[in-house]
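FW: tagging you since you asked about this chain on Friday. Here's the raw sequence from the shared folder, copied in full. Didn't touch anything.
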Amino acid sequence: MSRRRTTAWPVYAVWHNMLQRCTNPRRKGFEDYGGRGIRVCDRWRSFDNFLADMGEPPAGMTIERKDTDGHYEPSNCEWVTRDQQARNKRNNVVVIVDGEPMCMVDALKRTGMRMSTFYYRVNKGGMTPQQAFDIPVRAHGSTN
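HL: got it, structure written out here
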């Protein structure tokens, strides 16, 4: 496929960036992908094969590895929104709220806790992320 703009241009850019993350040591972020052993399967070294397997990404979607320690290969990749992808990062903080494990962003939404409250409790109060969520959030402006 040529690099000129076509209807496949967005998926070509995803494919190209995926390869660069895994193979180019000069690429920013290489240490989080190729540098820690994440590879692109042999089949996906060809753009045409990648396009045949993944298809065009729906609007607003990006490629996601279901297993963040797994490789870029058909059984481990899917198109997801950026919000969904953000919830599958290795550095996510997972806490239990109402008996359910969830990432910090979802826990903040569920509890109504402000990000500033969470950071204060952890960074200034010396709490673990779980302890920060175990203490109920006081209604804003409340003196209780």
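FW: Residues 1-5 have pLDDT under 50 and may be disordered.
HL: agreed, and DSSP finds six helices and four strands in the chain.
FW: great, closing this out.
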